[in-house]
Amino acid sequence: MDESSSLPCTKRIGKGHILAHAIVELVTICTGQSIPAPTGCAKEISELWMEYEENSSPEAKVVKDFDKVEMILQALEYENEQGKDLDEFFQSTAGVGCGLVVDVIIPNMLTDTPWKFQTDVGKAWALEIASRRSKKN
Prior knowledge:
The protein is mainly alpha-helical and 137 residues long. The chain has one domain. It has five helices and no strands. Residues 38-92 form the HD domain. This is HD domain-containing protein.
């Protein structure tokens, strides 16, 4: 975890992110309508969601990175189990990141490119997943 982030706050933002996704999907599926203005506990979830969406804290940055890490980890597992090439998922995490533009996407992401990860822990986990993917090829 980056020194500038707080684990308890990161956990809260992560939980808020998951809960907000679940609530929006459930309400939309069940009613076909959008969610009314939040109150009470829902207001806290809404505030955590906005902190995540606005990328406004070190904790939000960690949760955003974990969201991307989870996506490429699931893609790797699916590739291994189903024998499919899901390169587009890995490529979607390459590109603009850390204020830099990557002109060339290096195969298997095994470089010092910044990708779209904002934290050292996110970059390290993504690099580990990419190295496992390159070993299977």
